[in-house]
Amino acid sequence: MGVKIHPTAVIDPNAKLGSGVEIGPFCCVGPDVSLGDGVVLHSHVVVGGHTEIGPRVAIFPFASIGLAPQDLKYKGEPSRLTIGADTVIRESVTVNPGTEGGGMITRVGHHCLLMVGAHVAHDCDVGDYVIMVNNATLAGHVIVGDHAVIGGLAAVHQFVHIGPHAMIGGMTGVERDVIPYGSVLGERGRLAGLNVVGLKRRGFTREQLQNLRTAYRMLFEEPGEGTFAERMDKVIQQFGEDAGVGELLRFVQRDSSRGLTLPKPGNGG
Length: 269
Description:
CATH class of the largest domain: Mainly Beta
Helix content: 10-25%
CATH architecture of the largest domain: 3 Solenoid
Shape: elongated
């Protein structure tokens, strides 16, 4: 399949274009950019920096991809940005590459949906099948697990880790790590239970959901039942073989500079 380039587009001759690439009016593509097979830049899209975009990614007008990060420590180092296959990037989205202080790379996984005005800052690592709703923003060094949903106008603080299958409500400020499968709501995010709707949509069985619910209650809704470490030991003893609960426990036990998002006082935690 041939490449289709609108005559008003400006494409550096050193850019690498896969088969079937379509580049619409007034797009700009820099010299260190690689566009995979079937990538579509609809119009007025800018792709710069050391950026690799996977097959069949669609990018809509006025998106700015791979340009210099908004970090005062950035000194022009040749950091990178990679975007996985079949991801959709809607209008006015911005995605920045990494920095020397964060590993030199920003990653966005495959089959993601970044809706209008979403922002992924430097050194973020966004998993697969992640949805960022309109104007959701990730500060630098944020990690987002697979299948997570970041609600509209939500803002995630730098270095926060959001676990897989988590749901962040609209207009929520997230300052601490979010457990896998968790649901976080509020002006300053508080853990509000599990993302049950999302888990059902992804085929979690009734037994898996019940195990996660019970483990969640033991950890976060029964604070009078011993220390947190003692409650964790009970969960390990009861559900040590459950894969979902195991993922939750590993996340809670990991080292973190931000701490955990917990339920509102009086509602567990």
